[in-house]
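Inputs:
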Amino acid sequence: MYGWQLSDTLINHNLIASIGTLYPMLTRMRTQGLVSTYDEASDSGPVRKYYELTPSGIRVLSNFRSQWAPFAQTVHDIIGKEPENV
Amino acid sequence: MSEPRTTEIVHVYLADLRAALTGLPDDVSDGIISAVREELAGLSDTDASKRIRELGDPHFIAAEARDQEVPSLSALQQISEPAPWFDIIAALLVMVGGVVIPIIGAVAGVVMVWSSKSWTRTAKWITTLVPLALIALTAVAVTALSSYGAQSAAGPSQEARNPLLPVGFDFVTIGILVVLLAQLGLGIWLLFRLRRTRTPRTHEFTQ
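Outputs:
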């Protein structure tokens, strides 16, 4: 995906507020070697910078996926329901 | 391939965005501007205006980017550390080291300033080059005056020297005084910069 697509997707899912939120994260991920970039011409003309996961990024994502479900379940168990005695 | 047409409204928006992103790391601001430019390139005024509305105020984008910036470990260490004696001694040596131990004292101060991380590279260059520039100016003045004196002495008129005009020796004395005063000023300036960079700003990271 290129930068705008990433930003648009995350904004539409209410995960970030603007494109300004995205780029510091992308820069950190690139510094950490989790994503890399390549340029590709688009049909409409401009050359776009595309982002893709590196092998290291894929490993981190896989690890995150395996931890996310139990983590989300734990959070839900703790704060997911209104306390009964209130 | 020719560049896609960019409308005036896009030019203005990109200029506003670039100005709003000032101060952020280059790779962050360049990434944002490139992505926005890519997306807006080739659009009509109407489409570009619609996209720009979706993007929002450049200042909001810049504020979001700043909120995401994590201060580096070195920046945090610099903020939390008190002013070290090493830096204070370095500034004092720059200030009066040349008086206590001529030349060596001042050189030691400059070397200590360069080995410290408390001052910017620009400040270090100023500390190094200002005294050297003053010494060079004095040398040029003395050389020019000596040359003028030699020409006058060799001339046919053999006129007496004007006592109101400074001779080379006066220039050396004045030059030394100016360099010492400059060293004094530079040392004070370094101490002020040290105080400013070391002032705790922890509130920025406790939110």
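Remarks. Chain B has nine helices and no strands. The mean pLDDT of chain B is 77.
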